[in-house]
Specification:
With about 130 residues, the chain is mainly beta. The chain is about 15% helix and about 45% strand. The strands form two sheets. It has a seven-stranded antiparallel beta sheet, with helices on one face. The two termini are about 25 Å apart.
């Protein structure tokens, strides 16, 4: 199993040196990238609900790390997210990302964020990434 890449220590989502980052630790098994994240009081959008941008960042990075943890480099070209349930402070989500298809330099990926306690889908996304050298 491949562990988080340390090439981006200040990445907002996974950078271990970013003092305000999410510090998500991604793993890749050859097909799926996975991680867990628990939002705290500094991630709130409305009352005790985790801000949608934080959930988006986690999903963007779980899809990106499917590519990065294979040693490839790419940038997000487009990411469409669908929020399905609120995520509250202290709730842990399980993140999973995978490749749907590849065509030339374009990679289409899907990602999900599910509440760990009951496996309910909190949000999902479809992302397009452009590979570069």
């Amino acid at each position: 199993m491949t562990e988080r890449v340390d090439a981006a220590p200040m990445c907002f989502a996974c950078g271990k040196d970013n003092p305000v980052g999410l510090k998500i630790n991604f793993s890749f098994d050859g097909k799926y990238c996975t991680a867990e994240f628990t939002g705290g009081e500094n991630h709130v959008g409305w009352q005790d609900t985790i801000h949608g941008g934080i959930v988006y960042s986690a999903l963007d990075d779980v899809t990106a790390n499917v590519i990065y943890l294979q040693g490839r480099k790419a940038h997000t070209a487009k990411c469409e997210i669908r929020y399905r349930q609120p995520l509250y402070v202290g709730e842990t989500i399980k993140l999973i990302g995978w490749i749907e298809k590849e065509k030339g330099r374009l990679i289409i990926l899907k990602g999900e964020a599910r509440r760990k306690a009951d496996d309910v889908l909190v949000a999902d996304c479809e992302a397009s990434f452009m590979v570069f050298n």
